[in-house]
């Protein structure tokens, strides 16, 4: 009986040990199946934008190579970006074609000089006619003014020679027979009262008539003077206008012929300058040579083509101010402003230019962004291509999370918050899905709206397996 009890105890112990082992194994399997996660919490920090692009060293000091229009290019001897020195041949003109151009140009100069001679003759004739018209207008208007002045002076003389009213009346008394008759009767020694009264009455009536008549004649003389004075003024104005018009016609004749002659002279001068350039080119064997140390920026003509009025080639001055210019995508424009700095490296890593200041930020027709900065490094070569890097702080935020912790679905952003939960197996970690609002991001972090998370809350940054709302997880061991 005692042995049976000992055996039962032993078997029970073995069973309990077996159950313990099974529990440990099952807990291990259960834990193994859980996603292993790395946790994090929010941090205050700055978001940065890293911008990279390729650019080219250029110069603002460019020199056009102008040879004149119409040359047939036989051969272009350089390529864009090539370094050139004084005396280097840039391109060559076809000599036979150049000879024909010179002959045609000589004929054209001769024709234009004949036109100039015709203009000179026509201009002289027009000026002579205008001079004669001016003389005729002056002589004719002078006569009109002279006659008007004579009439005015005569009217003034008549007005000024007019007698006084008393003299006028006295003369009228002498010529009036009735006045004389009544006057004699009234002045005789034995004149009656009636005779004297008749004389006084007649004289009074006559004086009234004479005063009215005198005033009318005086007014007529004054009106005549005013009329002749206005006529003289009109004659002077007419003379001034006639002479002015004739003078303008003379000036127009001079300017018309002069302007045309000046224009024709300019045409001839330009043709002769072109001819001088052609002769110089012919004497050099048709070779257009470089006159400075620099680089070939642009070639605007090819073999078999003729040069135009503009430059055939553009050279960059090797001693000019150097710039580094690059084009960034449209979406990068808002992150770059004048005054920002960029680091530039060149192929092979042999040279770097750190902290080059961006002087200008412009927008191109396609919406892309062009940036330019001055390059002080004397070793930089025009046309050389380098790579720029710009690191720009785009904002400081009090709530940032690693991009790995942020998930998106149907235009909604969310993260997995980790919470402790009591279970029959003890305290476990469970994830909860929480929507958040993203404000901005860079290559490493995203900024969330304040209040989305607290400093104490932990969230899943990385997981070796997919997690979802409600998943139990375990911490990644260090």
Separation of the first and last Cα atoms: 55 Å
User: What class would the helix/strand composition place it in?
Assistant: alpha+beta
Give the amount of beta strand, in percent: 25-35%
**Total helix count?**
5
Query: How many strands?
Result: 21
Q: Major beta sheet, specifics? A: 6 strands, antiparallel, barrel
Give descriptors for this structure:
elongated; 478 residues; five-stranded mixed beta barrel; alpha+beta; single chain
Structure report:
It is a single chain. The chain is of the alpha+beta class and 478 residues long. 44% of the residues lie in helices and 30% in strands. The protein is built from five helices and 21 strands. The strands form four sheets. Strands 2-10-13-12-11-14 form a six-stranded antiparallel beta barrel. A hairpin with a 2-residue loop joins strand 15 and strand 16. The radius of gyration is 58 Å and the shape is elongated. The two termini are 55 Å apart. About 2% of the residues have low confidence.
TL;DR of this structure?
The protein is α+β, with helices and mostly antiparallel strands. It contains 5 helices and 21 strands. Helix 2 (95-160) packs antiparallel against helix 5 (193-283).
Itemize the secondary structure elements and their pairings:
Layout (H helix, E strand, L loop, with lengths): L1 H32 L2 E5 L2 E17 L2 E4 L7 E4 L6 E2 L4 E5 L1 H66 L4 H11 L1 H11 L5 H91 L3 E3 L4 E6 L13 E5 L4 E7 L12 E5 L6 E12 L5 E7 L9 E18 L4 E3 L2 E12 L2 E11 L1 E4 L3 E4 L9 E6 L8 E4 L3
Parallel strand pairs: 1-21
Antiparallel strand pairs: 1-20, 2-10, 2-14, 3-9, 4-6, 5-8, 6-7, 8-9, 10-13, 11-12, 11-14, 12-13, 14-19, 15-16, 16-17, 16-20, 17-21, 18-19
